[in-house]
Amino acid sequence: MKTATIATLLLTATSATAFSTSRTAAATLRQSTTLNLFGSKPKDPNSDAAKQPGMMDQLAMFKKAQELAQKKKKLDDELANETIMGTAADGNIEITVKYIPPQLPANPTPGYEAAAVNINEEYLSQVSSEDLSVALVEAIRDGEKKATERVGEKYKELEEDMKGIMGGFGGQ
Question: What is the pTM of this model?
Answer without folding.
Answer: 0.59
